[in-house]
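Archive entry: two folds, one per protein. Generate the first.
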Amino acid sequence: MRTATIHRNTKETQISVTVNLDGTGLAQVSTGIGFFDHMLESFAKHAMMDISVDTKGDLHIDMHHTVEDTGIVMGQAIKAALGDFAGIKRFGSAYVPMDETLSRACIDLANRPYLVWQVVFERPKVGDMDTELFKEWFHAFASHGGLCLHVETLYGQNTHHIIESCFKALARALRSAIEIDPRLGGGLASTKGVL
C-alpha cells in the first residue's frame, strides 16, 4: 500500500495528514473551514484516495495559514506515499464541467514543482472563505508534492462551481498520474532514469 502520514506543528498551525493513494475515496477532514473541508472531501472522492486531514489553525487571525499549511502537508504526504515515483504513469489531465463552468488540470509528477494558475473568481468570498486562498492551497500542494501543475478555468461565472471544478479536475488528473503502469516494470517514466 502506498501510504504516508505527515505531521507539521508551528506557532500558527498543527496539522496531521494521512493518505492512502490506493484507497476508495474515503475522507475524514477537519480544518475548521466548512467550504474548504467540502473541497478536500471532493478531492479525495475523485482522486480515489483515502485521506485524513486534521488541521488546527489560527482562525482567529484569518484562514490563510490554515489553508496554505494544509496544502503543504497534503503535498508532502502524497510525495512521501509515492516514494521514488517508480512505476507511475507520471502524467495526468482532466476536464471537469460543472453546470456553466469548465475547468482543466494537467499534471507532470516529475519532482519539479511549478504552478500555472489561470483561474479568475467573480466574487472575493465563497461562504466566509477568501477566494484568493485557493491559489495559495494549489501552490503549496504543487510545491511540496513535486507536481508541475497547470490549472485553468476555460469559462464559468459561479464562484462555487469554478472552485469545485478545479479541485475535481486536479483530483482526476492526479488519479491518472499516480496510477501504476505495468509496462514500466517498476521503472521510471523518464529518459533520465530519475525523477
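Generate the second and append.
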Amino acid sequence: MDLMLLLLIIGIFLGFFIQTISGFAGALVALPFLLLVMPLTEAVSYISIFYSLSSPIYFYKEWKNMDKPLLKKLAITSFFGILIGSIVLIYGQPILLKKALGLFIILFVLNSLRIKNKQPFGFMIQSILGLFGGFFSGVFSTGGPLYAIIIKNETDDVKVFRATMFGILGLVSMMRIAVLVFEGILTTTELHNSLYVLPFFIAALILGKMVYLKLNEEFLKKFILGLLFLSGTALLLKS
C-alpha cells in the first residue's frame, strides 16, 4: 500500500468517524492528512465523494429530525456560494479568507459560552452565512462550521442539530460533486481509489454511530462547541 492511499484511508476514516458523532467537521479532520500527499483540488474531490455516499444514509435515518424550513433556506443560498467557491478553488487559494473564517468561528464559540439567552439569527444573517458556508465548502470543503453556527443558534436539541447538519452537508456535497465533474476536477482516478477506501469509510459510519448512542446530550453540546473551537483554531493557524 503506498503512502497516498494509506493517508487517504486514515483521513477519511477519522473524518467520517467524527462526522457521524457530531454531524460535522469531517472535512476539517480529513484535510490535514490528505493535503500531505495531494493538492487541494484532489483532496476536495475525495471528501466530496464520501460525503455524497453518506448523504442518502443520513437522509434516510435522520429525515424526521431535520429542521426542513431552515434546510431549504440554507440549500438555496449555499448553491450560489458553491459556484463562486469552486471558481476560486480552480484559480486561487485565498489563505487570508481561511484565517478569517477561523477567527469568526472562535469568536462565535466564546460568545456562545458567555451569552445564555441567545437570539435566533434573522433571515438576512442566515442567508449571508449560508452563502459563505457554500463558498468555503466550494473552496476548502470546510463550510461545516458555518452551518453549525447557524443551526446551533436555532436549536438546543442535539438530535435536530445533528440531523440538520447531515442534511445541509449532504445537499452541499451533491451540488459540489456536480460542479467538480463539470469543471473536470473530479476524474475516474479518484473514483477508482475511493473503492479501496470504501470498507474503512463504512466502518467509520458504524463505529461513529455506536459511540454517538453512548454519549449523553449535555456532553454532545460541549463536544460540538469544542470541535468548533478546534476547527477555528486549525483554520486560523494553518497556512
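Annotation attached to the second fold: The chain has a mean pLDDT of 81. The two ends are 29 Å apart (CA to CA).
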